[in-house]
Structures are given as structure tokens and as C-alpha cells.
Amino acid sequence: ISESYDEGTLRGSLVLYNGRIYTMDAASKVSSVVGIKDGRIVYVGNSRSDAIGVQKGLGSREEPRQINLRGRVAVPGLIDCHNHIVLFGNRPGYHTPLEYALSIAEVQAIYRGRARGVPKGKFITSIGGFSPNQFSELRFPTLAELDAAAPDHPVFISTSFSGPSTTNSRGKAFFESLGDNASVVVAANGSITAGLENGKALLSLRQRFLTFEDRKRSVRDAMAYAASVGVTTHL
Q: Cα–Cα distance between 19 and 67 in angstroms, integer?
């Protein structure tokens, strides 16, 4: 790499303060200020003025940019060298990751939050990236539980592209209304069996709710979610 720390994108100084800086040293010390000069961490402690002083002592010619973290945790931008960012864009509906949910109540909370940003009547979906075994109840949420979380939206949750899956009342009405050989068998509790029935459900969503604009929106959603957990670059 020909670029040095005094040139190009790595040039400049930064001070992050009023945060939680996990040093990961032997004492597991947590600091509130970190100073960065030309892409390198040059100070970790609790004094903003000391961080600026260290940068000045290392030849900084301008005042560093300063960011008040307001108590937040800051993490380096992480690079995911093998992900499927385009595949996220090919998920129909408003895809909602469940990888951090550890109970049905947490699934419901995630869906309530997601519903606030999704137009009424639009499908909220979670397709892959989780297992019901991660929930303390060791099962899918039921139709009634999903109705309570997202009463104004149809819901479709599938462990993978082959299922099994579950839905709520609005989703059940949609899948059962497809007619002919396309209608999906949905149990009273919202469950859909793996294989053929799950495949029909997923195909119907793809056929109706996966325009090019939908795909672009889904990729933007996926990037926003990734950034929220510290992944800023996708290869």
C-alpha cells in the first residue's frame, strides 16, 4: 500500500469523548475519551484536553474534529468479507432480522418497532438468519402473538427459504385467498409446514412484492441494519 498515514483518506485527527471506550486490556478498563491521529489511536483515557495535547505533540496542525458520544459505545468500522447483501435485497416484504431475539416477547418488541416504520398493510418478513431454538420458548411465535405485535400488517416468519414458517391473521387471510393450486395451508395457530407449503407462500410473496424498487429499498434497509451493529463495508 503506497498511501501513508499523512496522506489521503487517513489524514486528520479525531477526538471521541463522553463515551464508553472498551480498551480490552488486561484490566478490562473502560475509558471515556479516545484520540485518533492519522488513522492511529494515540490516546485513551478520560481527558479531552489531554487527548488534544497528545495530538498537538505529534504534530497536528489543526484542531481535531470532536464528537460527543453522549454515553454511547463507539466501535471501529467492521468489514464483512463474505456476506450476502444482495440476497437481503431479494427478500420480499420488509425483512426484519431476528438474530438477537432470545424470546417470543423480544420478537414481538422487534416487530412492534418495525411496524412503526412500515406502511400499513405491507408484509413484514423474517426469512432466515435465526432459529426458533434460540428463543427461550423453543418455538415460533403464534398467530395471536404476532397479531398483538403487528395488528395492521401481515407477517411471515420463516427459518429459511424452505421453512417451516408462521404467519398472523392478515398473512393467513392473504395466503388462503390465492386460489387454485397457489393457496397455502395455514394452521389455526399460524404455522406453515416446511417444503411445498412454505415454498408456495414464499413464491407468492416474491411474485407480488419484489419489484426493482422493493429490492433497492431492501438493500438500503440491510445496509442500515449492518451499520447499526458496526459493519460499514461489504465485499
A: 9
Please work out, in degrees rounded to the nearest 5, the angle formed at the alpha carbon of residue 123 by the alpha carbons of 121 and 125. Answer: 155
Place of cell 418488541: 109
> For 146-158, b where at least 16 C-beta lie within 10 A, e where not — what string?
bbebbeebbbbbb
Report the distance separating Cα 178 and Cα 121, nearest Å.
17
Which helix (H) or strand (E) is 113 found in, with range? helix 104-115
Residue type, 136: S
CA contacts within 13 A on the Cβ side of 125: 27
pLDDT greater at residue 168 or residue 230: 168
Q: What is the pLDDT of residue 39?
A: 80
- Rounded to whole angstroms, the Cα distance separating 16 from 72 reads 10
Q: Cα angle vertex 131, ends 226, 157, to 5°?
A: 75
Cα(14)–Cα(52) distance, integer angstroms: 9
pLDDT per residue as tens digits for the range 72-84 = 887 777 888 888 8
pLDDT digits (tens, 9 = 90+) for 4-57: 445 545 567 899 999 998 888 888 889 999 999 988 899 999 999 999 999 888
**pLDDT tens figures, 200-214:** 999 999 999 999 999
Q: Please report where in the chains the cell 434497509 appears, as a residue.
A: 221
Any bridge partners for residue 154, and if so which?
Answer: none
Task: Write the single-letter amino acid at 142.
Answer: T
